[in-house]
Amino acid sequence: MSESSALRDKTLSMSVLYVEDEAEVRSYMAGILGKIFPKVYTAENGEEGLELYWENRPELVITDVRMPEMDGIEMARRIKEKAPEQCIAIMSAYNDFEYYSDAVTVGINAYMLKPVQADQLIKTLGKLVDDILIREENRRYHNEIESRLLKQTFELEKKQITDELTGLKNSISLHARLHAGGSTVLLINIDNFALIDNSYGYDFGDSLIRQFARFLDSIKSQNALLFRLSGDEFVMLFSGEVVEFAVKEAERIIKEVEEHSFSSENIDLTLTCSIGIATGSKNHALI
Fold it and tell me: Would the N or C end of the chain have less CB density within 10 A of its end CB?
């Protein structure tokens, strides 16, 4: 496989911007570049090149130096200011240290002297394309790692505030919410749960806790937040000091729990619960 064919295989998704003020040279080079890159944009000066660049964001920019309106060095400088990783090559007939020094200062990736021989052009383009591919691979890798870290951080933070058994928010989340103040809470406790644990085993008890959590979640009012405090204790939180409403909710929950049948391992149970109400600094008696 020839170098140009191998290079073409690498540039299937790339585009190039070629900036040259001499129409004949521009047309000739556009033809050569078109055999390597699927999309070639051309401009006759730096100002037009800059406009085309921001419209199309090609992977590679190749530009002459001396041009009317805006020269290639200035165009490259403006691109690099906003897109420092952009790959830019200078193609100039001037073997002048001042131009080369300016190109280095700007951050030009390659400097080619006209007339450029075909083999030299292919080699230079090959190096530039490899650099672009490596940079894109590094960017993808960085983005993937960043995405994984963000996901892991989110999962860790979620785990820290989520009860593993029921999936409800846990006591850490509750304390953070209570710290904000202005809430009324129901402390819900399953009656005689220790006896159930001792009689049927911990696996049975865990299954019952999950069912109880799902049931509470299904019957709570729309504006209520539900937390598992610990063991068989749950907290239902309402915004504001709404004691009268909380009392009615407590009575309703007690009644609905008593009427519901819980089942685990082919054993049906009827549960009862006790509910305490607290708001601000005033604790109300258990219902």
Answer: N
